[in-house]
Request: fold
Amino acid sequence: MDVTQWIIFFFVIQVLHGLATWKLYIKAGRQAWEAFVPVYNAIVLMKIINRPWWWTILLFLPIVNLILFPVVWVEIARSFKKNTALDTFLAIFSLGFYSFYLNYAAKDLHHVKERSLQPRTELGDWVSSILFAVVAATIVHTYFIQPFVIPTSSLEKTLLVGDFLFVSKVHYGARTPETTIALPMIHDAIPGTSTPSYFKFPQLPKFRFPAFQSIKRNDIVVFNWPVDTLVDINNENGGVRYKPVDKKTNYVKRCVGLPGDTLSIKEGYVYINGKKNELPDRAKLQFFYKVILNDVSAESIYQKYGITEKYERYVFKTSANNWNKAEFQNYLKVKKIGTEVLKQDSTEVRFLSNLDQKSFDLLKLEIAEKALYVNLTEDLANIMTSDPDVLTVTKDLSNSTTENIFPKSQGYTWNRDFFGPIYIPEAGKTIALNLDNLPLYKRAITAYEGNTLKVKGNQILINDKVVDSYTFTEDYYWMMGDNRHNSQDARMWGFVPFDHVVGKPVLVWMSWDSNAKGINKIRWNRLFTTVGGNGKLTSYFIPFLVLLGLVIGFNKYRKRKKA
Reply:
């Protein structure tokens, strides 16, 4: 629904409310016209049902109002002595239309001016407490702080798998939900099912509260994955469905490119406007390295260096004569078997390849050794090069021209390690648009900015008009993981528009290592640590416990003093 449709819908609701309650307003000592005035009617209604005026604000907060509307419907009935279980049932399951019955058909209605708000039963007290705890939690979750758990290793060494974060929504400006009907605090699907936890219609227009700061280069950012259409995020080959922006899967990456930047990647390093991007000292880039061992077991190396992300490949060898035979090379060509030569001299050739057993036998090969592919920081890779158990350590840079890399279009042969240059769109800035760069910006123009786009011959038509330039209406960002060879990031799906930005991680309040045992499953040194900043990671867990103890002690002292 657009803004005009929402305005019409809003006034229709106001008219319905007035028609359903104007006589009730009169019975409560108010004027009939007060039931029809938008917003003011809600303030008056709070007085009629003996509830605080600020409930009016909650009635206009998306998702929160879904919880509060049924409460108000029941409160209206009870304010006129309709207290039975049947009255409660009818008020809720008629979606508030029970008020029409009260307004026009019910007899002997009397307004209870100073009605007690205390629940009459223990069950009622319990339900009331739970209800308003959910309301408070929903407000905090939606507009202030959202919990988030790190599911993957894309920011490993900076944020670990099993880190539990608090994500601030106020730093970059909290978004109001676009999805108006949804289960509180449940993001995508109902837990344990693939059933959406929301209705796609109606949708609110986009709105964002003012930000306290803008996204800075190298900030870690939580955002909605722009290309998410998966029913099950863990099944890439499963079903798909349309998702509203605020119901797409939450991702967390480092923002390495800002609106207006020209970004490129060389040997896995990001360059901004031609200058190498300098990361904070807490950030540790990781790459896969090819490691050849000197007659020791792979497992001993894994344990020695704490390596968790790895795989192994065989290094094959054959004689130089066999390698140079036409039959040998033709077989590789016909079977489309790629090879990476590691060593070649007059007597022997050693190479890497993905061979099956049949090819291995036909080509009369031998296994020379295993090549380990291990994910390392640059510091650890340098340490391993001086290890006598290790023969070579080589960064596994890609030379592919056919990777599944953005923009996934003919003419672009970029890969994970060599990419760009690419201009990151900035709101209000105009670029020349042609068939060569159209693949880079087509999704931004159509999916994110809502235009139609067609290509007829050599002409580009936007909204049925021939164009040779385009002015962007939104800012875009380039999000990448520090774990450069094990990260699903902007290199695969491109830009992140600002309306997809959720917030800024500010605190690791808990960290759980599923590979450890017993009490060591908790990473104690990471509890209550900040996400940003420079210098050594510092835990504020002990100060937190001290502060918590002081608060509890003070509350007990105050209760004793009152007693």
Notes: Residues 187 and 492 are 24 Å apart (CA to CA). The longest helix spans residues 3-27.
